[in-house]
Specification:
By secondary structure, this protein is an all-alpha fold. It contains 19 helices and no strands.
Length: 387
Amino acid sequence: MGVIILCIFFLAFPAAVIYASGRWPAVDKIGAGIICYGTGIALSVAGLVPEGSKPLQEAMMSVTVPLSIPLMLFSMDLRRWSRLAGKTVISLAGMITAVLAASTAAFYIFRDRIPEAWKIAGMAVGVYTGGTPNLNAIGLALQAPGHLIVLANTSDMIVCIPWFFFILSFAQRTLGTFLVPFRASETVGDNAGSAYEEVSDINDYRGIFTAPVFIPLMKAIALALLIFAAGGGLYALAPKEYNMAVLMISITTLGIVASFIPKVRAIEKTFQAGQYIILVFCLVVGSLADIHHLVTAAPSILLFMAFVVYGSWLLHLGVCKIFRIDVDTAIITSVAAIFSPPFVPVVASALRNREIILSGLTAGIIGYAAGNYLGISLAYFLRALGS
């Protein structure tokens, strides 16, 4: 009975958090992901997870992320979003290269202090080119222990808070002393309004249970299950050491392919459905947290993630200086990569520049689509070099 109640809680609590985020701004500012992770960890530390729950936790952890990835990719119009200004392409490429370089350097610095540093490096690449879903997907693909995924997520949240406050407050003025100023002609300004609405809708769950939305959404979920099943077939054929990596790469690829089908892309609320499933994952993984690992391994992983965030950002600024990328584009592409697309309109508002929203959104979408490939590839490359 206890396990059944826990299962119901895992499914219901994220929905309650989503509702509370839409109703109370204070909850939304904390972040649904942080609340779900924190609640899961609190359950584990307080000993409220019933005995015999581990099979349920591991099963839900293994299913949720592979199911969420296609849903979050279905709505992405990569063909349309690929048409962005050259400066933004350079800035995004510079940011991705910087993250890869900083993650590689961090691996060599911390590999003697963190037993599976190559897995942390792969997860860092995922989260700082795309977002939290990439971190979780790569962690599962690399068969990282649950506590390691929790530590990586927690460390990411902690080290990014000071950086984000700087971006919202002094970044434009400070970085403007050595980067060129923004010029409207360097972005696709005509589409800024629609881009703003598109990003704003990412967290909007209203109407999801109405028939015109819910019925097509069920079809999208059925398609996501088919993609999951196809990935599962490849998983069964792959060598055991790489089977989870094969699963994640295959469902990412099939999700991107499906996004080119207009009828699939037109289905409403697929991204939101994927986000809900990710929140279920956050709650489940948090409940698997081992307090001993949290205490002993946290400082090293915290330093690792801080090195990647601030190291990659400084390298990115160097690229922007060399290629004369304006200050607003430099800021918005770094935010899209390090934080993900939903933060783009927040920063654009702080910069008082609505025209950069489309560039930021595009950078985040491309990074999200590429994050799994980049993170998994770098992790195995570093493991091979370190062996």
